[in-house]
Give the backbone structure.
Amino acid sequence: MRWNNKYLPFLGLIVVYIIGAVKIDIMDIDAAQYASIGREMADNGQFLEVQFRGKDYYLDKPPLLFWLSALVFKVIGISNFSYRLIPILSTLLGMYALYRFCKLYYSERTAYIAALVMGSCQAFFLMNHDVRCDTLLTNCVMVSIWQVAEYVKNLNWKHFVTGFVFAGLAMLAKGPISLIVIGAAFFVDFALKRQWKQLFDWRWLLGLPIIGLVLLPYCIGLYRQYGSDGLYFYFWEQSFGRITGESEWDNSPGLFFQSHNFLWSFLPWVLAFIPGLVTRVRDIIKQRFLLLVADEAISVGGFVLPFMALSTAQYQLPHYTFVVFPLAAVLTARFLDKLIEHPETASFRWTRLGLIVTSCVMLIAIVGLCFWAFPLQNIPLLIVAVLFLVLIVRLYSGKRPGFSQLVFAPFLTGLGINLLMNAHFYPSLLKYQAGSVIGQKVAEDYAANVPDFYIYELAPADEYNIFHSALDYYTQRTTPVLRSLNEVKQHFKPKGTLIYTDEQGLKSLNTAGLRFKEVHKVQNFHVTGLTLPFLNPALRATETHPRYLLMAD
């Protein structure tokens, strides 16, 4: 590849990220809830005391995403893109930080590969449209690791301060898990180099007040809302309590839950990462757990120990380990760069075969999603997809340079597939998220009726039968929930009242003789919990349930 074209792959990543940011509606539950909290914060100006639907309720996550979202909403307004803007920018910063970190220990090419791997793995495409706290957490952690590594190399205090500022921001993004990753990374590195003076250097304690200053506004807000219980929850129970068993959250995920999820979330690089990790651990064992000062074990320590710890938690979701994926990219890039120099070896051929198999599996999956589950009828997009396929096949050719076969071909596989996902599959899927569909319908066609718009829900408040967050986000209002016919009658205005409800609510209104007409009907499905029957067009109707927008007659 000519060096003056080195930025083109990153431009491709940005384009695909932005297409997802614009075309995909905000997904229930988590992303829509976080976006709605940011929208509410922008309205009420309560930045220190996080509120959800008008109540001092939301303790579960720190506020960095809410703060940044609220600021963006105030500047450029509320939209799909505005909620995702800062997370996308943070990802670009995270890729740059990974590149600079790798250059401290490896070649320019290894650093370049690592940045490509990080930006094009499935988890990062997902994190930049289904935006949760993990996007900011992951990228802040990577910047912190880079800056602390710079300090260890050069003893420049500006890197020390920046490193701990970003460690504090990472804690503001999702809590103490950030310090676990950063601490594990450098603990393993210092221990394997026998740098005990570095490990126990008193100057590390100077980082604590820096983190404390970053956290101070949030801690003030926590104490004002919840007292000492809020501080205990944030600093201990939220993260460590899920490992020790103190937290009430428990979904019994099993010891290999995160390992299974890694197989899809690190596509298309997973079959290059596994031998990369094994090779790195084998090399450390061969060196009798003693590394040279010029080497690094930050990546292996920062990946393995937190991944193992998170895998033992009593409550887990697939995105919990995304924070260590940049370090997995380092291990992958280190392995691939060595293979590129020796295309005649069996390791090169087996890795190439593994990447080809991975690409084929991904291509088969995207064909199923975009030509069976939701048939693609956009001709220009179809032409682009065919061009990607032709180019990928050509790059995997044995006559191409090793870099093309082991890096560019799988990179373009991930890029092309997620172009189709972001431009076609997810927008098609989100037509079955009734909250966002109805919310946009009300905002566009019934703006005058928004003050008299209500949710009518008969299910208990803690059952999440009718999700509220996407609806609130797109109507830019906390929609009141009515839970009885008496409440509906109190707010009934002929030709004015709008009701969003399900089949149970519709039946209740009809039985009571209240005059409502159906103005919109949507088949609803919880889109983040995909099932094969739902993806099957012939069976989809068995998995969906109608939601109604009603107007008083």
In short: The first helix runs from residue 8 to 23. The radius of gyration is 25 Å.
